[in-house]
Write the structure tokens for this entry.
Amino acid sequence: MEKKTKTKSGNKIKILTIVLAMILISMIGFIGIYTRKQNRMQNIVEGYDLAMDLKGARVVSIAPTEDKETVIKDAEGNKIDEDLTDEEIKEKGYTKEEIDNNADKKTKENFENAKNIIEKRLKDLGVDNSIIKLNEETGEITLEIEENTNTDQIVSEIPVEGKFEIVDSKSNEVLMDNSSIKEVNVVYGTETNGTMVYLQIIFTDEGKTKLEEITNTYATQENKTTEENTTDENTTNETTEENTTEEEQKEIILKIDDQDVMTTSFDQPIKTGKLELSVGTSSTDSDKIQTYVKKAKSIATELNNGKLPMQYDVTGNEYIISDIETDLIQKISIGIIAVIAILAICIIIKYKLNGFISIFTTSGFIALFLILIRYANVKISLEGIFAIAIIVIINYLLVWKLLENSKGEEIAEKMQKTYANFILRIMPISIMAITFCFINWIPISSFGMVMFWGIVLLLIYNWIITVPVLKMRGNKEEKTEK
Amino acid sequence: MKTKNKVLILIAIIIIIIGTVITVTKGFNFDLRYEGGKRIELNLQKTFESSDIKQIAKEVIGQDVVIQKIEIYEDAVSILSKDITEDQKNQIVTKINEKYGTEISAESTEIIVVPHTHLKDLAEPYIIPFIIATLIILIYIGIRYYKLGIIKTIAKTIGIVIIWQVILYSIMAITRIPIGRITIPLTLTIYMLSLVYCTTKFEKNLKQQKQNEEKE
């Protein structure tokens, strides 16, 4: 009898301890822990890492460069090259108009092409969340990207034309261009005085043939013999003949975005179809090497995805704060709270004290979940918030099932079966969560990560907390009935 | 079939029919942020309440507006609406100058055209991950519930998932909930819940079948 009383009061203490612990965790999770720092109360619990749609985005606008020229035309539409005043133009019956020399490039097809190239560049630059809008009439492209330490660099690289040319240094004849490029990579080489970063340009089959021809044509030439014939018979008669035969050295200029990268001739023909350009100097300093790698990667990104069909200028660049906090979040929060409240009321009505206790454990779970996603470096997007709601609903479903099986005989076995059955039921969504965790797109990975941590915590938490509590309550009720 | 199930199916059919009719006749309602429109940016050089600016803008334009603060100092504002005329712009600038004591010039304030975002651009990043996850899930369902018939369970899963999505979009069309930033999260949520529903149903059927086999 004494043993039964001890077990009864022991269970009561355990349940009470768990409930109090849940209240404490709930306070930490929902409110935080405040300490005084520099005369201010500061929450020491880590904050949420919000994604672009909840925090704000860098909005960048780029538009095709205008190359306007004022042209004077006669009545027949012929261009007049004379420099005339407005009065003279009027007298002669000429017209003055402004034409855009880039007008023929400004087609819908080119605008779409530019948008696709920029999308690929953003992907290569590691931008994992962006929205791109195209004005099909003006060609203006508006980008919304995450604000972080790389944003300024990305903004500077996006509108770059990405033009690659190998030209004759004298005639400026274009010998090769972007169409010959297959792939551009960043490679490293070990030199005597450190590591060297190279930009490796791999050409297409056609480009490989062209490159070989060019390297043969522009081969480094050895100096021809200088012939000197000097006949000096007497002091009054001196004939000096010099025959210097020296062919002019042909050189190419490699240009990227109209900037001369190198002027050179080739010591040997290149038959591999690859060209390696050194970036910076060889170094042992890792920071310097990283700078060179960054520079090489940005050039590689520009060249790998094709040349923009026309030049673009940045017309807008600002950080715009999301309006979602004031509006949509409130509505979503109210929706989630309403659903939770309805489920809670239903559980309490049906299961009374057991239901009430399980609501406490559930609130503890939600609080612990919110703490976990903060410390697990999960970026929270709108999709992540919906994932939180799904986890809360699934948790309620599990708790409901556990409550259903917390009465009668063999409670422990019933609970185990319920748990096993539940795991099988949520297997498809677990598969989806894990798959989404590996996707390099923040809204999707946010959803996946929140779901993943939610499912893991839900299973562990309820097994450690909810199941033992309900078992204790179930055993107590069974004994009471007996 | 139970009466409750019949009623639910009937309600679902009605929602789908009405939703389809509205989609065909009126189309979906798109969120202003994705529909595109006109935007003005005003540099107030002082802090302000977005709700005040929204009130002023709505009074003048008479349509839905989106107000966003610009830059970390939050002293500039972006006002987006379906259309903003020169006259409306001038009125907004005047009213803001009156309220905040600023000297913003209407002449130097440009009306920026905001292009619309194609739905396919919004959905594109989700397509491949979604397909990969769905294929793996269908394979799992086929293996787990093979006793119920592989093709039958896979077909039922696909059917249930599609029907739930159609009901969601029908409700969105009927209630004119804008297609925008909550559309994809909602789609994912309903997709997840429909999968839980499928597996719950299949587990029940599997248990039933097992019990029947044991009885025999």
Summary: Chain B touches chain A through 47 residues (CB under 8 Å). The first helix of chain B runs from residue 3 to 25.
